[in-house]
Each structure stands twice: as C-alpha cells, then as structure tokens.
Amino acid sequence: MFRSIYTAAFITILLLLSFTTYAQSMLDSIEEATVKPSHWYDKFTVSSYGVMNYNNYNWQLLPQKRNDIEFERAVLEVSYRPSKKWSFNTELEIEAGGTGVAIEFDPLEEFGEYEYEVEKGGEIWLEQFNFKYDFSPNFNISFGRLKVPFGLIGFLDEPTEYHTTNVSDMENTILPTHWTEYGVMLNGRFGKNWVWHAGIVNGLDGSAFNSANFIKRGNQRRFEATNVNDIAGVARLDYEFGYEKFIGISGYYGNTRNNRPKPDLQFDANLAMIEAHVVYELEPFEFSGIVLYGALQNSEAVSIANRNLSNNLNVKRTPVGKSAMGWSAEVAFEPFGLLKKHPNGELYFFLRVDSYDTQFSTQGLIFDNPRWDRKTYTGGINYMPNTWLVFKTQFARQYLGIVENKIQDTFSLGFGYYIK
Predict the structure, then answer these.
(1) Rounded distance, CA 164 to CA 155, Å?
(2) ∠ CA(380), CA(386), CA(387), 5° rounding?
(3) Are residues 288 and 151 in the same domain?
C-alpha cells in the first residue's frame, strides 16, 4: 500500500512540475525571441578530469598481492545551454582505460571465489545525463541521471579538490563510487549562504549488499535496465562560508526489497542513512571531515536471500550488517601560505584518518566479523605546478579488526588533472 502511495505522490509531483515548467517556458520563449542570439559555440561548456596512480602493496593478509598501475578514470563533461532557462548536462566516464571483461580472485571474502568484473576490465559509463530548468537564479529543477547529493566525494570529486591519490577511503568503501541515479531533484538557495537539495531517485538493489562494503554495490550499474519498483528520497542542506567551504548534513531513505533481480525477499529492507560533513580553510591549513551512519531493516533476511543467489549474478553473497558506521578527518598544510605569497605552484602536506565498520551491528544469527572494523592512516604530499595539474604521493597503513596479519601498507604515486 505504501509503495502505491509513494508512486502516486511521485507521479503527482512530476505532473505539477511539468505543468509549471511548461507555463514558465512559454513566457521565457516570448522573452528570448526578442533577444539577439549568441554564437552557437558560446552555449557549450566543456571540461575534463582524470586520475592515474602507481600502487606498491605490502599486505600481511595478502603477501602475494602485486604492484599495479591504475588508470582510475578519465571524465569528459559537456554542458549545453540552448536557452536562458534550460541547460543540458552530461558526463562520460572512462574507467580503467576502456571496455572489456576481466576475471579476478577475491581472497578477502569468506567464499574466496573468482569474479568477473566488467568495471575492472574497463568501462565506458554515461555517469550523468540530465536537464535543468532555472525558475530563478536561486531555484531550479533537474531530472535524468543525477548525482545523489549525499556525502562529500560527490561534491569534491575532481582530483584537484582532494589530497589523497584516491577518493575518501571510508566513503568509497560504504557508498557507491561517484553515486548517480535516475530521478528528479529540486535545488535552491536561500539567504546568502544556505544551499539545499531535495529529490526522489530510483532505489537500490539489496542483492549486491555484502559484508565488506555494506550497500556500495547496490546502485544497479551492472544491469542493462534499472528497476524502479522502489524509489528513495534524498535531501541535503549546506551552509557555505565561501568557495568550497561549507558545513552541512544529508539524509537518504528508501526500500531495497523490490528492486532485486527476482522477488526472493519476503520482508521490507528499508535503508536509512545520515551524514554530517564540513570543509573549511584557514590559511595555511585546510580541514575536512565527515561522519556517516547507515541502518538496513531486516538485514538477516537480506543476508539469507543473498546467500542463495546465482553465481552468474556476480555478487559477493556474504552476510550484510544491520548498520554501518564511519568517519574520516583530514588536515592539509600549505607552507607557502605562511609567506602570504604563492609561487608558481602550490605544495601541500596532508594527514588523513578513516575509520569505518561495515558490520557496526548485526542481526539475529549473523556473525559480527571484526575484520570489517577498519582504520586507515594516510599521509602524503601534493604539488600543483599550475591550477589544473596535480602530482601526488602518499603512504597509507590500514589496520583490520583482527588480531593476526592485520596490517596493509600501500605506497601510491600518481597524478590528476582538471581542465575547464
């Protein structure tokens, strides 16, 4: 019954917004007809960013792990504004250098099985594809495939915006990487400093939830079509102190039962998540931090259903935690900032701590595996010879929540760019 109510409300909102947008666009068309058109190329905005890293591993739990070079991703962003009020945005992401399928052995899960990973072999993915309509300078609606406004990594995803060689360890473990979904989003600003987002998106698929990553793999990217029997709501509120300096909270809630590949779960599996974050700069220091909590309803039933899934589905099939908890904090120091005069480039030293447990609590007979209580300490250096290129090096030590063979050391060296 509640699903029908949510669906009806969703359709009603869409109809109201469509009518309002149509009426306003008719007025805009009359206005724009009297304005001299600009050059066609002035309506386009193009930008690109990418990351490539070398990793040297010394993992006690997996001593045979080989060093590698990781072409993490290259992204092309294109925006087109056909009129004063309308804009179109798309983001094409190329992961691991292209397309293909690779086979990988994962010894860190209980089953220790081989997995076919399309993403690891390479992937071309249309991460964003959406339209935006501006009702006013402080209020707009966007629809299509959108960024989910939850956490920090979706807002600080260009390599020149974060100091580590990879995005946040804690967030990247628990949440879908560069999280996007299909939906409708209202975005606005009130006062001088308050920014908000509120919308509805397709819900997650609980069949891919697992011990190591909680709900990370639930965003249905591996399927040809996305199920929308369940939808989810997401909202975010930030107070901005200045450019990329803000404090705020965000929340997410939705059922994950009815978007599974098969109707094999007899109980609701509502997911609720909340997080609080801050990004601030006080020269010569920069600070960032986030605290995240998520809870999954009937996690024992989800774990039992997932245990019986087909191998062909390419999921972990490991027990899912009832809740996950994580936090991270980072401080960066720019010695040139002490001189109040920057040379041609910028140099940063940083320290970061990530602490997270993807089985913070469990339900019923599900074993609370201490392995998934992890802490990562990272320190490194960034050098930016100009505003669009950054060279990074870091050393990270991760402690697993087990007594023996618990240390994983990783040295990384790489570069990233962001051109716009």
Answers:
(1) 15
(2) 90
(3) yes
